[in-house]
Fold this sequence. Notes:
11 strands
Amino acid sequence: xxxxxxxxxxxxxxxxxxxxxxxxxxxxxxxxxxxxxxxxxxxxxxxxxxxxxxxxxxxxxxxxxxxxxxxxxxxxxxxxxxxxxxxxxxxxxxxxxxxxxxxxxxxxxxxxxxxxxxxxxxxxxxxxxxxxxxxxxxxxxxxxxxxxxxxxxxxxxxxxxxxxxxxxxxxxxxxxxxxxxxxxxxxxxxxxxxxxxxxxxxxxxxxxxxxxxxxxxxxxxxxxxxxxxxxxxxxxxxxxxxxxxxxxxxxxxxxxxxxxxxxxxxxxxxxxxxxxxxxxxxxxxxxxxxxxxxxxxxxxxxxxxxxxxxxxxxxxxxxxxxxxxxxxxxxxxxxxxxxxxxxxxxxxxxxxxxxxxxxxx
Length: 361
């Protein structure tokens, strides 16, 4: 039997962007599920924060999110135990003092062994000034604090480097977690099992046997009130250089030394180092009908909500194999599919299948 994990220390979770779409769909239901599974600390507090306070009680807003997006039935007795741990404090890059005081009060209530986890679910343009606020209020400089940076990390190389430098002015590297929540999905992690625990696929997972790899993440969802965020980010930054590239890293990596975080990071980084610059001639952008009517979107916006491109990885395993990445908002169906196309055998014994029109299928 696996050893029982030690109970985490008391925690104050500060969730920036707590009223946003990601928080409602993923983060808050995830925290609630962990609590019901006994994987949260026995004592914890969740402080939501953002520029605008809820119209009513934050707990009511959280309950609505759980009822809409949670995977388990919301039982009254469980909710009554969870709801008192929730609160909301308005903050922004210019004023975080009330939030800092709320965190200090909660930490004092939970005891000297308590820790702070700062979860940054905010647009790229807000990250840098928010990092400054966290440092000036002492929230991030506390030795028992850690900071989680949700993707996208910056909007280009220069802004990512600037953000990284600002973080390192105030926070030790081992207290910084740059994450892509998509990799928390069990199906994404199953790619590793398919690749490295399977004697059938391991030997043929290369250019000699694979003709193409296609990664599709179409979404039925539209903007869900995130017009200003999408105007700033677009599908390419929101999805391609984050979710799709991370999945491509799982599919294409060499076997890591182990399954710990550092080994997986290094294996993915090696793939991305061999990734060739995307070719504009092999890229298609699109925008769903009605995007420009969304709140927060410019009337003449050319921001893409759909991207399809061909990527290539220049190493011995994958040279010559196209990686086809496609994603978009407001499409006919939502799914997450990785398709591996294998090469035809050199000697064909069977005639290719054709449809009623005589076309190949």
